Amino acid sequence: MEKFITKDKKFISIIIHVKENHNHLVSFLNILEKQFSPNFENYEYIIVNNSANIEINQYLTVQEKNNISGSINIINLSWVHNIEDAMRAGIDLSIGDFIFEFDSISLDFDASFILEVYNTCIDGFDVVAAVPLISKFSISKLFYKILSRFSNNIELTTETFRVVSRKLLNIAAKSNNSFRYRKINYHYSGLKSKILFYHQIKTFDFKKDFSFSEKFSLAGNVLIYYSNIGTSFSWILSLIFFLVSILVGIYTLISFLILKENIQEGWTTTMLFLSLSFSGLFGILAIISKYLEILLKEIKINSSYTYQSIETYKK
Q1: For 231-253, how does the pLDDT look when each residue is reduced to its tens digit (9 = 90+)?
Q2: Is residue 78 part of a domain?
Q3: Minimum mean pLDDT among 116-120, 181-185, 215-219, 279-283: which range?
Q4: What is the number of alpha carbons within 13 Å of residue 271 lying toward its C-beta?
Q5: Is 235 domain-assigned?
Q6: Which residue in 33, 167, 186, 202 has its CB near the most CB atoms, within 10 A?
Q7: If residue 247 lies in a helix (H) or strand (E), which one and from where to where?
Q8: Same domain, 172 and 67
Q9: Which parts of 20-82 fold into alpha helices (H)?
Q10: Cα separations (Å) of 148 from 89, 142, 143?
Q11: Range of 242's domain?
Q12: Please, is 219 exposed, middle or buried when counting C-beta atoms within 10 Å of its C-beta (0-12, 13-18, 19+)?
């Protein structure tokens, strides 16, 4: 990819999420610096430290900071947040015209691809995402299929990083939800979006930033907020038990008519009462579940992240 002849005048924000791989942060910054320093006049790094017990300054020394042309902002979160809330902390602090979002410091693509994604974005798009070419089955693919099935055909895929315009972020910020899933807010904002695929290259062995349970919790939040899976599941269960209750009532009447002599007195009325009661109960539960889903989305909005401290380094 050819570099710019003159440095780009737009202000660029680079948001980097760091959790489990602090020891690779310096090398990651050096790779980015080789792309941004020759091509951009003004830019900032926003490092989101999402680890409660590790200091970024243990790995990023004063000398290494001086080797970086752009300003550096380090956000130390008070406790471990999910990836969406952690990145939102960095996004809210950013001031760039275009924002690079790196959810991880695992670099499995050629560094020049970063500029290719940016060039595509300024060519008429408001968000351009980098997506690896993965053909094998993965849990994330299954999750996106479930999301598509129980939503309004929301089609998503695994993204490594993305470039977002300030205009799109301003629109996304108007959302009243305390929980925001960036992929959906970006690609379904009404503005132009694009996906660029790349072939993965061999990289270092990185630790996974989040455990399966943490990812499962985030997936549950996404499904509740952006799909009707909760209501659908409740309706199906309610319908099944409603039908079972009706069948029990029919069985009770048939038993009373055919096996009247062998049935204890009071059994028929008791079973009819129970079957009708549970039929009504499961029907009401299905309706209540819908109301609970709506109320959950309209619950009081609270801040989704908490700063412990913010450090700024400028040359």
Answers
A1: 777 777 777 777 777 777 777 77
A2: yes
A3: 279-283
A4: 18
A5: yes
A6: 186
A7: helix 229-258
A8: yes
A9: 25-36, 62-66
A10: 28, 10, 9
A11: 229-297
A12: middle
